[in-house]
Design brief:
Metallo-beta-lactamase, Chain A; 14 strands
Length: 245
């Protein structure tokens, strides 16, 4: 499995990074799945030559705009570029309603347009797997206020059985131990050097690091304070990083 970190930033573009957008594909293949689709994702994808029309599924960790706000643009881009492949969006409870509202705020009338492709919306249930022919995705509820449940996402590749986990945004919770157990790669929030409510800080993560059984831990979603801290003990994602499992 190839994991392309098209966007590794926080909500505010700290460090010049794009908002969260993680593309998954079979090794050396065209990416077919996104984990999160922040508002800047189309730009990030085109910067990395990822074809938006090739994306089959978008897995959303939580309903903040820097994680799902790119969906209206992804859908409309497909409409104007004559996409024919259906798109499946899987997100927290309330995703269908929030997506419709976002599309209407951005482009009134756009949620009701007939297109050459359909947008199917499914909603996560804690620790209930969602399966396609390409992967199994399991959500683990975490601690982040977003008007709906927030999840860490564990994705197992159907072809290689490789596992990657993404923490989403969250305070420390032992659910992260289960979500990342034995994972080949754990893309984990490292938002700040010291505690910030609803986010995972480097100090707390360091305290629990030995409890994590993932093979590789990579920090993402860093604030300006985290980017300015001593990160020599950590592997840190940047836009364009490709992780192969």
């Amino acid at each position: 499995m190839d994991i392309t970190v098209a966007g590794s930033g926080d909500a505010f573009g700290s460090g010049g990074r794009f908002q969260t957008c993680i593309a998954l594909g079979n090794t050396n293949s065209v990416p077919h799945t996104l984990i999160d689709c922040g508002s800047t994702s189309l730009v990030a994808m085109r910067r990395r030559r990822i074809d938006p029309n090739a994306i089959e599924t978008v897995l959303i960790s939580h309903l903040h705009a820097d994680h799902f706000g790119g969906l209206p643009f992804l859908i409309l881009d497909g409409q104007f570029r004559r996409r024919t492949r259906d798109l499946t969006v899987v997100g927290p409870p309330g995703t269908r309603e929030r997506l419709t509202a976002a599309m209407e705020v951005c482009y009134p009338g756009s949620s009701e347009v007939e297109r050459r492709f359909s947008v199917h919306v499914a909603e996560h249930h804690d620790r209930t797997p969602f399966r396609t022919g390409r992967f199994t995705a399991t959500p683990f509820e975490v601690r982040h206020a977003s008007g709906a449940p927030a999840y860490a996402l564990r994705v197992e590749d159907a072809e290689s059985s490789a596992v990657m986990t993404y923490s989403g945004d969250t305070e420390w919770t032992d659910a992260l131990l289960d979500a990342s157990a034995g994972a080949d790669v754990f893309l984990c929030e490292g938002y700040a050097p010291t505690p910030v409510r609803w986010h995972l800080d480097l100090g707390t993560l360091a305290q629990h690091r030995q409890r994590l059984t993932c093979r590789r831990l990579v920090l993402t979603h860093l604030s300006p304070a985290a980017l300015a801290a001593d990160l020599s003990a950590w592997e840190v994602a940047d836009d364009g990083m490709v992780l192969t499992t």
